[in-house]
Here is the input.
Amino acid sequence: MATYRYRAIKLDGSALTGEMDATDRTDAVASLRRNGATLLELTVVQPRAPGRPRRLGGKARAAATTCISELAVLIGAGLQLDRALALAIENVEDKRIAAHLANILRDVREGAPLSRAMAQKPDLFSPTAIAMTEAGEANGRLGEALSRLAATLEQEAELRRLVGSSMIYPVALLIIAVGVVLLMLLFVVPQFESMFASTTQKLPTATVVVMTASRLLRHYGLALLLGAGVVGFALAIAMRQPAIRLARDRLVLLLPLFGELVRRIDTARFARTLGALIEGEVALPSALALARRTISNRVLGDIIARVADGVKEGGGLTGPLAASGALPRLAIGFLRTGEETSQLGMMLTRLADVLDRDIRTRIERLIAILTPVITVVLGATVASIIASIMSAILGFNDLALTS
Here is the structure.
């Protein structure tokens, strides 16, 4: 399965451009000809990053999800596709996003399938969404396919909201901790520097370390900040290298608590998407290739890609996944049951629901650990700074009393 960018002419003479997924070049050309288009140019789109879905703005994603959900309800109520799509677009508040959706409506009214019209808006609709829509068009159950798609998108949005809202407090606490330490080193510690400079007594090691850190921040703070920015930029550039990104993803999976959380988040997203595609009667090899794009961790994505290649050659699904150890053991049980009962789509959806509940529990547990850890580190750091200053002052008092 590859992605092709095409340029063609429709029957009415208007230009047609976009992207589509096809097994090979011949399949892509045949698909365009079936839709009544004359091909002018067809090129392979190089993948951006294996396993990484297209990044969209939150507002655009939310608007597209809402539009699909309303469209599914309206089609289920018996409305024609163009009328249902027009009503759904009217409820979109953002005019810029509504304009993009209006272009889809125009193509549909000109006779283009909804999936092909959606394919021309890759910033709003993922390849998975396009495939699920195309499957609904093929089997004549577009309303059901859009309902499954809307449910899948809403579950993904809910998981993103859960992770984002759960990390607000730990991140805020970390920012406060860094701010307090900087405040003490930049403004509190320098108040004692002149006092300590006027004595010939040897200062405690802890006091020397704190005074040196304060002096470095005051004199070279901007340089240190610039250096940190340069290092961060260099790391961002380095992460574009496939080998470095692969090493980072492998390291993430080895981290305690966090690694297993990432594994389960990717598995839940993959299972929900694959289940929806299979229930939409998308062939398993194609469904695997599309669902793999929802996996953010490249190590897991590469394993799924190898399994998908094996399925294309007639191999099984559960056995290779179990041998790879990529997915949680719970997922293997659901997959095996689904294959044995010929209910793979339903079992994948149930697996995603179970994993979503487990992810919420793990996130709450991780936050329950992070919050006191940050608090303790902050308290210990502030206490160490105060103790280093007080030890030097008490040393002066002892010297005065003995003299």
Q: What stands out?
A: Residues 344-402 form the longest helix (59 residues).
